[in-house]
Amino acid sequence: MVTREGHGDVARVRTGVRVVGAVLAAVLGASLAGCSSTGGKRAEERAKAAEQGRPAVSTPRWTFAMVTHAGDGDTFWDIVQKGAKEAAAKDNINFVYSHDDQAQQQAQFVQNAIDQKADGIIVSLAKPEALKDVVAKAVKAGIPVITVNSGSAQSAQYGALTHIGQDEEIAGEAVGTELTRRGKKRAVCVLHEQGNVGHEQRCAGAKKTFDGTLENLYVEGTNMPSVQASLQAKLQADPDVDAILTLGAPFAPTAIKAKEAAGSEAEVDTFDLNDSVARDLRSGALGFAVDQQPYLQGYQAVDLLWLYRYNADVLGGGRPVLTGPQIVTAAEAAKLEEFIKRGSR
User: Fold this and answer.
1) 8-state DSSP, 99
2) How many Cα atoms are found within 13 Å in the side-chain-facing hemisphere of 78?
3) How many angstroms separate the CA atoms of 30 and 222, rounded?
4) Are 209 and 181 in contact (CB under 8 A)?
5) Which of 62, 77, 222, 261 is an S-S bond match for 119, by CB 3.0 to 4.6 Å?
6) How far apart are CA 163 and CA 146, in angstroms?
């Protein structure tokens, strides 16, 4: 299922005649210099336009709607939005964002975008079945759809152009491998949103490649004191737990508090990055984080919709375009600190 970003193959021309080779090199050199000059000027113009808040393209002012399953205050989705908004500014797009952690309301937002004749729709499919019919309506209405973050398995089936995000099971497998490498034996995977297929896939993937024992712990993600109490009780009841995996950056500090309150020595690891996670990685309070590059998810989703509207381009060849996973430790967090502070990682 892995899709790679395209790289053009470089053709190498060989000749046994030195004179011909020299002439060819000269011609190619002149040609490339011309292209480089033109491309460089265009790049400079685009960069200048972006700095001044002007679009870098002359295409129509299309409207793209993004609808996600984000709950209030979820910093992960702030980063997705940042990427989407910056791509929209560059591409002369009117960007409209709405979100709700309830799938029924999310479906209504998609319907609103259809009714308002949006030129493109970006939607996350954390609970795919609840959105299947409304996504089909959008496709039937001729509105191009890109799925983002969640729902990679259903994306093509529902008629979306492509899916941008990480394969959650592959990400989970990377976690299981890392836990094994660190010598862990007994882990708890903390699921904060029941019914979220991506979360289930993460834990299942980790369990698949982890040589130890992994158990799922379901918590009420909208109530942090309850999350801490549930995890603390689990750690007190099972002192052999030596690894705690949270599925979102906002839950990592809560897991650290629960661990400390329970007197546990378990390592806390998490999915996703934010400033708090970066600090805790550097201090050693967290072992590692799994980054799926949310900025890239938002940016690429808008950019690919623009490319489809402008040039009928589709990326991915029918498979998801992966933005992760990347295992981030203290060393990597230090390198990413500048980007984390500006809200793009």
Assistant:
1) E
2) 16
3) 62
4) no
5) 62
6) 6
pLDDT tens digits, 131-143 = 999 999 999 999 9
Residue 167 sits at the vertex; the CA angle it makes with 4 and 315, to the nearest 5 degrees, is: 40
Highest mean pLDDT among 42-56, 67-81, 227-241: 227-241
Is the pTM higher than 0.90?
no
Establish whether the linkage from the previous residue to 253 is cis, with ω within 30° of 0: no
* pLDDT (tens digit per residue) in 20-66: 344 334 433 444 444 444 444 544 555 555 555 679 899 999 999 99
Burial pattern 255-265, b for ≥16 Cβ within 10 A else e, equals bbbbbeebebe
Alpha-carbon gap, residue 327 to 272, rounded angstroms:
10
The Cα 108–Cα 13 span in angstroms is 57
SS (H, E, C) 200-247: HHHHHHHHHHCCCEEEEEECCCCCHHHHHHHHHHHHHHCCCCCEEEEC
Question: 282 near 301, Cβ under 8 Å?
Answer: no
Q: At what angle do helices 75-90 and 294-311 cross, to 10 degrees?
A: 30
